[in-house]
Design brief:
This protein has 401 residues and is α/β, with parallel strands linked by helices. The protein has 14 helices and seven strands. It has a seven-stranded mixed beta sheet with strand order 3-2-1-4-6-5-7, with helices on both faces. Helix 2 (26-36) links the parallel strand 1 (16-22) and strand 2 (43-48). Helix 9 crosses helix 12 and helix 10 (274-289) runs antiparallel to helix 11. It starts with 7 loop residues before the first helix and ends with a helix. It comes from Christiangramia lutea. InterPro entries: DUF2062 (IPR018639), Glyco_trans_2-like (IPR001173), Glycosyltransferase_2 (IPR050256), Nucleotide-diphossugar_trans (IPR029044). Keywords: Membrane, Transmembrane, Transmembrane helix.
Length: 401
């Protein structure tokens, strides 16, 4: 009597399957699939135009669902084929795993356990295996590339992950198929993460093991072109997130809660200590007053991510440079510039004074210098004021019976 795979019942209860994209991994594929089917038979294999003996190997595993691309289209296209097929078969979740021998099939337990522990029926959960890229044995180029991706993922989504490039993941199938995905190679895995996060999916890391030994696995990652595509993708995400996603989300949250509740829940009762909340306010005011017109939103979210400050607070206070205050900020900046250049305050300011290109240039330089000076003074002053206010509030909360 044939023994049932170890996790078969759990896969059935969770309505989950495994998707294996593969391209010219014949050296490891047979052993990998033999190990994998010890845990479940719910397996979809996408042969992405392999030219080696992959097709012959897959014939030894007829119990799997197979999809074949006549020519290699890239990992992203292979994954999209797998997601569409998984939905056609009625699966709600799909775990993707690479066939190059890097991942361990017994780590399926980690993904299933996390899914089983959920206390709600919301299917928007996306799990990414954390390979602990900082440990010994991980190639430096892989670790650096992962840190780069992790940082920019944090910037464009506000979510901190330690590994954004692992191919061992659990996806909510319907959500992924609803996304408008435009990439077709390795960068699709980043595009999926970002767009799922923008759709309010819960995206998180879970620890997994990894077998990572150079020369023992075949990778089709092309260091130059694939990195270029990833960089261009993040550049696009930065623009979209800073000029649309982040402002939209904060505005919707603010509109939903109202100013009083928003201030109370997102600022006053924020979990950060007083000095960090005050620093977020100071950062927002500094950016809002600075002469970096047109990129205030981009700048404030980037700096908030770099200094690990509350992005909501920083963004809210960066909007000090809204139309009613812009003339006041420009005028005060010009006067501050006049003062720090030793000219004293120029109360009799008239446009007639700028009657040459040199005068305009010097006036602009005076404004820029004064703008940064004013931004620094206001930021420091407000940090002191709000640090005191937040400290007092925290003390009241502690002594409150």
């Amino acid at each position: 009597m044939k023994k049932e795979p170890v996790f078969q019942k759990r896969f059935e209860d969770l309505n989950c399957c495994v998707i294996v994209p593969t391209y010219n991994n014949a050296h490891s594929l047979d052993n990998f699939l033999t190990d994998l089917k010890l845990y479940t038979s719910r397996i979809i294999v996408i042969n992405d135009g392999s030219t080696d003996s992959t097709a012959e190997i897959l014939e030894r595993h007829p119990e799997f669902h197979h999809k074949f691309h006549p020519e290699n289209k890239g990992k992203g296209i292979a994954l999209k084929t797998g997601f569409r097929f998984a939905q056609e078969l009625g699966y709600e979740y799909a775990i993707t795993i690479d066939s190059d021998g890097q991942h361990y099939p017994d780590d399926l337990d980690v993904f299933l356990t996390e899914l089983e522990l959920r206390d709600n029926d919301d299917p928007k959960l996306l799990l990414v295996g954390d390979r602990n890229m900082g440990r010994d044995g991980i190639p430096g180029k892989s670790s650096k590339g992962n840190r780069f991706s992790n940082f920019w993922f944090l910037v464009v989504t506000g979510i901190e992950l330690h590994d954004t490039q692992s191919g061992y993941r659990l996806y909510p199938v319907k959500l992924i198929n609803s996304l408008k995905l435009i990439t077709w190679k390795f960068e699709l895995e980043i595009e999926v993460l970002v767009k799922a996060a923008w759709k309010k999916a819960e995206v998180k890391n879970i620890p997994i093991k990894v077998h990572y030994q150079e020369g023992d696995r075949v990778t089709h990652f092309r260091p130059f072109w694939d990195i270029v595509r990833i960089v261009l993708l993040y550049m696009w995400f930065v623009l979209v997130s800073f000029f649309y996603i982040h402002p939209r989300n904060k505005y919707q949250d603010f509109k939903k809660k109202g100013f009083k509740r928003f201030w109370k829940e997102d600022i006053i009762k924020s979990q950060e200590p007083p000095h960090k909340k005050a620093a977020a306010i100071a950062l927002g005011v500094f950016v809002g007053i600075s002469p970096c017109w047109g990129i205030h939103t981009l700048l404030v979210f980037t700096l908030a991510a770099v200094f690990n400050l509350n992005k909501v607070i920083a963004f809210l206070f960066s909007n000090i440079s809204i139309p009613p205050f812009i003339p006041v900020i420009i005028y005060a900046s010009y006067q501050m510039g006049s003062f720090i250049t030793g000219k004293g305050f120029d109360w009799d300011l008239k446009l007639q004074k700028f009657d040459s290109g040199t005068d305009v240039f010097m006036g602009l330089w005076q404004y820029i210098m004064g703008s940064f000076a004013l931004a620094i003074v206001m930021a420091i002053s407000l940090w002191i004021v709000f640090y005191f206010l937040f400290s007092v509030f925290n003390q009241k909360q502690v002594v409150k019976p």
